[in-house]
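Fungal-type protein kinase domain-containing protein
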Amino acid sequence: MALPTSRYYDMAPIAQAQLIRGFLRWAFRLPGNQAVTTGGQGLGQRAIAAGVWRPIVLPANGVMATGGEGIVHLWCRVDPNNLTIQDRVVVKNVVSGSTRYLDPHNWASDTVGGEPLECRQANVVWSVTTPADRKHIQACLGWGDVVPPHYVAQNYRYKIYNEYCAHKNLHKIMKNQPKRKKKGAVRRGRRQFPEPFLWYMFESLAKACIGMNRAYMYTGVVHQDLHPGNGKQSIEAADI
C-alpha cells in the first residue's frame, strides 16, 4: 500500500504504479468546488457540466504525466449515443504527502484543507489579465476530494481540474520538429521554429508575466518550475 504521508515522488515505483491504476479506475466526479465563484467572486470561469466522463486510453495503461506531487490525466465528456467528444478536462491527482499538505502556505488564506493555493493563484492572475490575453493563462476550473486536516481517515491528497492544452507543452513541440534533410551531415538537427512563432511565444510569456505582476504587485510571485516541459501550448491556454 502507498503510504499516505509520502509525497508521490518519494514513493516506491510499485506504490506509484498502484496509484496510477487507481486513478485510471476513478469514476469522474464534478469538482466539489467549481472555480466559477472562487473566493466569493465571479471570476468568469466556465462550469464543468455533468455527463458521461471517460478517461482517455493510452498505451500500457499510462497517464498523461506524473510529477513530484502527483498524477495528471485527461477525461473526456462524451455523447452516450455516439461517443462524440463534447468536452475535455485535465485532472491532477495531487499526492503531496503530510508535510506539504499541512503547510498553510500551500493553501489560499493559509486555510489547510480549503482552496489549494495553485488554483487560487492561477485564477487571480487570469482575472486581472485583459480578456484578449487570457488565452495565455491556464485557468483552474475547480478542486475537490479535499479531506479536512482533522479527519482521522486522512490521505493528504486532493484533485485539481484544469483546462486541456491541446498541443501539449513546448518540450513536446521541440521534439516533434522534423529532422533536417541535409545530405552528408554527421548529425541532423531539427528544423528551427519559424521566427513569427518564436516572437509569439515570447510575447505570450511576457503577457502572462504582466498578469502575474498585476495580481501580486506588492508581494510578488515566483514560478519555481519554469522549463519547456511546463510551457503548455493551446489555442485556449498556455501555462507558464
